[in-house]
Design a protein that fits this description.
cell division, 13 helices, 5-stranded mixed sheet, alpha+beta, ATPase_NBD
Length: about 450
């Protein structure tokens, strides 16, 4: 039987943590096997600020995904975001020893490794080195240099940089949750994989992922990533503004935003009012939907302006850099009523809401095709690229991997009993195919050896 390539993505967001298990079906589409989500309690603006709470939230999401899918998670690809992320453009080159030999993958890897050695600011680490156009012996605008001849290979790079401590904290949370980290991906890149088509990337497009704590931006042109940015504002600041502006608690503010909120104040009539129950015997509060929309509108305009400043910094007004496909909005914030119209009004660019359904199998759950899960779907796609076996069937772990307990023969000499244990450990060494199995086996042998120790103590 062919080994299944089961992929797992873990989206550690500010409002929610999502664990998603998936695999490619026979048509090359992504089939989601299990989804687990939990409230994110230890993350602020995309950065872990409470290790213990984050570990608990990760374990909860992972456990739910495992129960829903029937698979045990071994390792995950995780998304990195947060206000510490920045990107730089860099050009580098290598001189080849033999120009008469064709350029191969090793030459490109040599060039990428050279960029990875760039000196960064103290405490910063390179997350991604993404090659853009190549230049061979002065001939520019080469997209695929492999197979060509040349002595000097040059390339422009998009380098994504983040704070080393923040990245390590994420890694620590995952390992402390009992799973391994198989890869790190910038969240806007994962979202882009999930919701953008190749045609859009070729024509030029800006992906805006409005999350709870951050708003991520990724700009593509000619099929190449051109610019990335993370803005430290998201849906949570809108909720905070409603909470302060209407003097209500956070839970009520979030409900108001989701159920009645609109990014366009002209939409609501003056007499539209919603009544909110008062706290602990207090009178109910009456809130005008027009005022609610004004509060939301002001904050959304601020977020969109900040993103548009980044789009202008990329140089989208230059005719050669024009983003013909406009803007794609995704993330939980993209579900806000009339946000598409507002973004079109502010930027003057065509806008659509991005759903991750293009790459999903036809029978996928409607909930998974929501913009809310765009990043998680993208992370599963990245995990599939790694071709790792990130999860195994729970029944396979239980039935075939755990050795059956055989109590030691009481009359046997102590040396033979201990030899028996060693033999069992040797036999099982060949079966250590995944960390889950290793953990089960270790627990089993600990118990086995403890029983022998008790037996020896009693024998004395």
């Amino acid at each position: 039987m062919e080994k299944e390539n089961i992929a797992v993505g873990l989206d550690i967001g500010t409002t929610k943590i999502v664990a998603m298990i998936g695999k490619k079906n026979e048509y090359g589409k992504l089939e989601i096997l299990g989804l687990g989500k939990s409230k994110s309690l230890g993350v602020a603006r995309g950065v872990v600020n409470n290790i213990t709470q984050t570990i608990l939230s990760i374990q909860q999401a992972v456990q739910e995904a495992e129960i829903n899918s029937g698979y045990k998670i071994k390792d995950v690809v995780v998304g990195i975001a947060g206000q510490h992320i920045r990107s730089i453009q860099h050009t580098d080159y290598i001189s080849r020893n033999n120009p008469e030999e064709v350029i191969g993958g090793m030459d490109i890897q040599l060039l990428i490794d050279q960029v990875n050695k760039l000196a960064m600011l103290p405490g910063e680490e390179i997350i991604h080195v993404l090659p853009q156009e190549f230049k061979i012996d002065g001939q520019s605008e080469i997209k695929e240099p492999i197979g060509m001849y040349g002595g000097r290979l040059e390339s422009s790079f998009h380098v994504v940089v983040g704070q080393a401590s923040s990245i390590r904290n994420v890694g620590r949370c995952i390992q402390s949750s009992g799973i391994e980290l198989s890869g790190l991906t910038l969240e806007p890149l994962a979202s882009a994989d999930a919701v953008l088509s190749q045609e859009e990337k070729e024509a030029g497009v800006a992906l805006i992922d409005i999350g709870g704590g951050t708003t991520d931006l990724a700009i593509f042109k000619d099929g190449i990533i051109r610019h990335t940015a993370v803005i430290p504002f998201g849906g949570n600041v809108i909720t905070d503004d409603i909470k302060e502006g209407c003097s209500i608690i956070e839970k009520q503010a979030e409900l108001l935003k989701v159920k009645f909120g609109s990014a366009w104040p002209g939409e609501n009539k003056d007499n539209e009012i919603v009544s909110i129950p008062g706290l602990r015997g207090r009178e109910p509060k009456e809130i005008s939907l027009k005022n609610l929309s004004k509060i939301i509108h002001a904050r959304v305009v601020e977020i969109v302006d900040l993103v548009f400043t980044e789009v202008k910094a990329y140089g989208h007004e230059d005719p050669r850099k024009k983003l013909i496909a406009g803007i794609v909005l995704t993330g939980g914030g993209a579900q806000l009523k009339h946000i598409k119209q507002l973004v079109e009004y502010i930027t003057g660019m065509d806008t659509r809401i991005g759903y991750p359904n293009e790459h999903l199998a036809g029978n996928s759950d409607e909930e998974i095709a929501s913009p809310l899960y765009a990043t998680a779907v993208g992370l599963v796609m990245k995990s599939i690229e790694n071709k790792s076996q990130s999860a195994v069937r729970i029944d396979a772990v239980i039935q075939t991997k755990v050795p059956v307990y055989r109590p030691p023969i009481v009359n046997a000499p102590v040396d033979e009993v201990l030899q028996d244990v060693e033999d069992m450990q040797d036999n099982n060494a060949t079966e250590k195919q995944n960390s889950t199995v290793n953990r089960i086996q270790r627990n089993f042998f600990d118990r086995y050896v403890d029983k022998i120790k008790d037996f020896l103590d009693n024998a004395e």
